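To whoever picks this up:

The nightly regression suite flagged Hydrogenase maturation factor HypA as changed. Nothing in the input moved, so I suspect the structure step. Input below, exactly as stored in the fixture:
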Amino acid sequence: MHELALVDSIFQIINIKIKELKLEKISQVKLVIGEMKAVEEMTLSACFEVFAKDTIAEGAQLIFERVPLRGKCRQCGHTFKVKNYRFICPECSDNAVEVISGKEFYIDSLLAE
Ligand SMILES: [Zn+2]
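Regenerated output under the current build:
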């Protein structure tokens, strides 16, 4: 499962932070997820709970911030929101479109007690 691997990578980072900052309890984890990352928030939350069980992150609230998919035309420089994965510039109809946001997946913040 895709979400399981993502949660695994989240916990690798959390564990580093726990050691680094000597945290004792994590109450909230905020994740930034790009639109292109096909992530089911419900599944991700369920996986998170499994991983968090018996750790200091048990019961932590998971917050999602979704980042829309945006592209930039290499031809005219126009930036726009990509709809339905149509990578075509609405200004000049060129299809040389660079993805400038929407691929994100990272921990934005950890709230510790
Ligand atoms: Zn263009």
